[in-house]
Design brief:
Length: 254
């Protein structure tokens, strides 16, 4: 018996800004046998995460800031109007490989990503997803990063993703919005190879934080036991869809 399980999608209209760590430690920690590239794994994760949203100029818009020592708004929210273009642009982002200027990355997001001239909409909720593999460097950038994060949280909901076991969890909390709960407002992965394992969790948690519907198979994971009998009595087409509300309580079969 085969079923069609649609890709889960957050039913939300948001202005989303990715803030991407491109510091030297990312590739410094590549495996010696070069079997994979941490930078590429990070970009693939973020590209696939785009599928958690309905992308469009009248739906969710996406902009990207990349930070190392150099910090750039790589593309603004009004650059691309469809998911495929956004995903391809993310996959083509060049690696910087310098120090970790986290506070400047946060400032550029606040001042440039969330600029009406660059596609920010004043009547649409702002959402930031920041991903980093460590801590600001030099260390005296830690407190400025916290201050910049607080300023950014004044205009946007922040989700933080920390990668590797050297991540500073206290800092990761500061980079996320309240209630600062792990697996809801901030997430961790022990290394870049585990990023894709948390992708669905990040998508579902993000959608819940911004208070919108998550349409797709998210409900399948947490309420399967309630509906197992329906799998045997599904329609003759053997197709169904699952509507997931942020409370994860309602599945509707067609």
């Amino acid at each position: 018996m085969h079923y069609y399980l649609p890709e889960p999608t957050c039913d939300a209209q948001v202005d989303l800004c990715y803030i991407i760590d491109s510091s030297g430690s990312i590739r410094d920690n590549n495996p010696a046998d070069r079997s994979y590239d941490n930078w590429q794994l990070q970009l693939e994760f973020l590209s696939r995460l785009v599928d958690a949203f309905v992308i469009g100029q009248d739906a969710t818009r996406v902009g990207v800031v990349v930070f190392s020592e150099q910090v750039d708004l790589v593309f603004p929210m009004n650059k691309y109007a469809d998911a495929q273009s956004v995903k391809e642009a993310i996959l083509n982002i060049q690696y910087y490989g310098q120090t970790t200027n986290t506070p400047e990355g946060l400032r550029v997001a606040r001042e440039q990503c969330y600029s009406q001239a660059n596609g920010d909409r004043p009547n649409v909720q702002n959402l930031v997803i920041i991903i980093t593999d460590g801590v600001p460097f030099p260390p005296d950038r830690r407190e400025p990063a916290i201050q910049e994060a607080r300023a950014l949280k004044g205009i946007a909901t922040m989700i933080a993703i920390g990668v590797t076991d050297v991540i500073d969890k206290d800092l990761l909390k500061e980079l996320s919005s309240p209630p600062q709960i792990e697996n809801q407002n901030y997430f961790t992965a022990t290394d870049f190879t585990f990023l894709d394992d948390i992708r669905r969790q990040v998508g579902e948690g993000t959608c819940e934080v911004i208070g919108n519907h998550y349409i797709g198979v998210g409900c399948f994971n947490c309420t399967f036991h309630k509906f197992s009998s329906l799998f045997e009595t599904a329609s003759s087409s053997k197709h169904f869809s699952l509507n997931y509300l942020h409370s994860c309580s309602t599945c509707i079969f067609h």
